[in-house]
Write a structure and sequence with these properties.
By secondary structure, this protein is mainly alpha-helical. It is built from seven helices and no strands. Helix 5 packs antiparallel against helix 6.
Length: about 200
C-alpha cells in the first residue's frame, strides 16, 4: 500500500503542473536544430536616394541663330525707347524722308511712332507693322512685328477708352455749367422779385 504522504505529494505536483504550464525560454524556442546553419539576419531597407532636381534650360535663343536684321531692329527699339520727345520727333522725320530706304524702315518707323503716345501715330504704326507682316521678304522680322502689333492693338484700345472717358467728363462738365447758369438765373429772378418797390 502506497503511503498517504506520497499520494498527497503527487497530487500537489500534478495540480502545480496544470496551474502553470512550463514555457520554454525564447532562446530555447528559437535555437536552431543541430547541424543547421543559423538563419540570416533580416534585411534592413535602405532609404530611397533623392532624385536630382532637373536643371531648367534658359529660354533664350543661341546667339549664332539670331538673325542680324532682327538683332538690329531690337537694338533700334531699345534706342528709341529711351529717346525724349525732340529726339523722337527728329527720328520720325528722318525716317519719313527716307522713302526709298530699306523695307525694314517701316518697322523702325512704327517703333518710333509708338512712343509718341498719340492716337494718330498709334494707328499709323499699326498700319506699318501690318505691312511688314504681309511682306514675305521680311520674314526674319515677323516675330518682332507680331509682338509690336499686339502691343499697338492694346495701346489703341487704351487710347480709345481714355478718349471715351474724356468725352464723358467734358459732357458732364458742360451739364454742370448749364445747371449752374440756370441756378444763377433763378437766384437773380428771385432777388428781383423780392426787391422793395
Amino acid at each position: 500500500m502506497i503511503p498517504r504522504c506520497l499520494l498527497l505529494a503527487a497530487a500537489l505536483l500534478a495540480m502545480a503542473g496544470c496551474a502553470a504550464p512550463t514555457q520554454q525560454p525564447e532562446a530555447v524556442q528559437s535555437a536552431p536544430a543541430v547541424g543547421c546553419s543559423p538563419p540570416p539576419p533580416p534585411a534592413v531597407p535602405r532609404p530611397p536616394e533623392p532624385e536630382p532636381e532637373p536643371v531648367e534650360e534658359p529660354l533664350e535663343a543661341p546667339r549664332e541663330t539670331l538673325n542680324p536684321a532682327l538683332q538690329e531692329a531690337l537694338q533700334y527699339a531699345d534706342h528709341v525707347r529711351g529717346a525724349d520727345a525732340p529726339a523722337l520727333a527728329a527720328e520720325i522725320s528722318s525716317l519719313d524722308k527716307a522713302k526709298d530706304g530699306p523695307p525694314e524702315r517701316r518697322l523702325y518707323l512704327a517703333l518710333a511712332l509708338m512712343h509718341t503716345r498719340q492716337p494718330a501715330d498709334t494707328a499709323r504704326a499699326l498700319g506699318l507693322t501690318q505691312r511688314v507682316l504681309e511682306d514675305g521678304a521680311l520674314a526674319a522680322l515677323h516675330p518682332l512685328a507680331r509682338l509690336l502689333e499686339e502691343r499697338l492693338l492694346q495701346q489703341r484700345r487704351l487710347e480709345e477708352q481714355l478718349d471715351r472717358q474724356s468725352r464723358q467728363l467734358r459732357e458732364a462738365q458742360q451739364r454742370n455749367e448749364q445747371l449752374s447758369e440756370r441756378l444763377e438765373a433763378m437766384r437773380t429772378l428771385e432777388r428781383s422779385l423780392n426787391a422793395p418797390r
